[in-house]
Write a structure and sequence with these properties.
- By secondary structure, the chain is of the alpha/beta class.
- It folds into two domains: 159 residues, Rossmann fold, CATH 3.40.50.150; 45 residues.
- It has nine helices and seven strands, in the order αβαβαββαβαββαααα.
- It has a seven-stranded mixed β-sheet, sandwiched between helices.
- Strand 1, helix 2 and strand 2 form a beta-alpha-beta unit.
- Helix 4 packs parallel to helix 5.
- The longest helix has 23 residues.
- The protein is elongated.
- The chain binds S-adenosylmethionine.
- S-adenosylmethionine binds next to strand 2, strand 4 and helix 4.
- The site of S-adenosylmethionine has 17 residues, from strand 2, strand 4 and helix 4.
Length: 231
């Protein structure tokens, strides 16, 4: 993967970024996503935010080698501290991190969100707490995608601020739109997850030390939801 050829995962993220967006790519690593989009003429401007020095330098290099220094700002900052109102950001991508980390970035950076930006989020696990944050903060999920690449499942969640929406606990767990669409990948993922949940519950039953009751209840509840979903 590089700025000429994105991974399938980032290619699908790219597909959800509106044309002519002013994009903030938070946790940009090499900066491949904003640079690839700029090379295609798909975005107007971008900020590539990075908290760590090595990926920050790497993003700077990708931007420089492609001659985009005037249109893509690379900033060393944690989360949404990379952007301010003058950037006029219209879309924010946060990809390739745990859902809890993405949620924390959004929560800590709330004051920097105008509410008009589209969020394009690609969590690696932890989708449920991320959806919970979106619902609690007045976001509606516009689109969800599940894809499989190199044996891993990846979810993409696209959200915008809208009128209050309530998702059920099951919708927060599975994804409200994915639950409706029931794609083959989605069903395959949850068949695998159900096998894992049963293994976990078996290991709890055989554990020498008592597993906290709340943990057992949580996994039991999830296994019941998945069983009902697949029935
Ligand atoms: N977004 C790219 C992708 O999806 O391929 C890179 C993903 S990489 C696994 C995660 C990147 O997020 C790392 O480069 C890490 O330094 C950066 N990161 C983690 N927490 C961050 C934060 N709070 N603010 C900015 N960057 C962060």
């Amino acid at each position: 993967m590089n700025e000429h050829s994105l991974s399938l995962r980032l290619e699908r993220v790219a597909a959800h970024i509106p044309a002519a967006a002013r994009l903030a790519d938070i946790g940009s690593d090499h900066g491949y996503l904003p640079v690839a989009l700029m090379r295609r003429g798909a975005i107007e401007a971008a900020v590539a935010g990075e908290v760590a020095l090595t990926p920050f330098h790497s993003a700077e290099r990708t931007v420089r080698e492609n001659g985009f220094e005037q249109r893509i700002r690379v900033r060393l900052a944690s989360g949404l501290a990379a952007i301010d109102a003058q950037d006029g950001i219209t879309a924010i991508s946060i990809c390739g991190m745990g859902g809890e980390t993405i949620r924390d970035i959004l929560e800590h950076g709330k004051a920097r969100l105008s509410g008009a930006e589209r969020l394009i989020l690609q969590p690696n696990g932890g989708e449920q707490p991320l959806r919970q944050w979106l619902m609690d903060n007045g976001y509606r999920i516009l689109s969800e995608e599940l894809l499989r690449e190199n044996r891993f499942y990846y979810e993409i969640i696209v959200a915008e601020r809208a009128e209050a929406v309530r998702y059920s606990p099951e919708e927060l767990y599975f994804g409200p739109l994915q639950m409706q669409a029931r794609s083959p990948e989605f069903l395959d993922k949850w068949r695998r997850m159900l096998r894992q949940k049963h293994k976990t519950l078996n290991s709890f039953a055989q554990a020498r030390q008592a597993v906290p009751e709340a943990k057992v209840e949580e996994i039991t509840q999830q296994a019941q939801w998945i069983t009902a979903l697949l029935a």
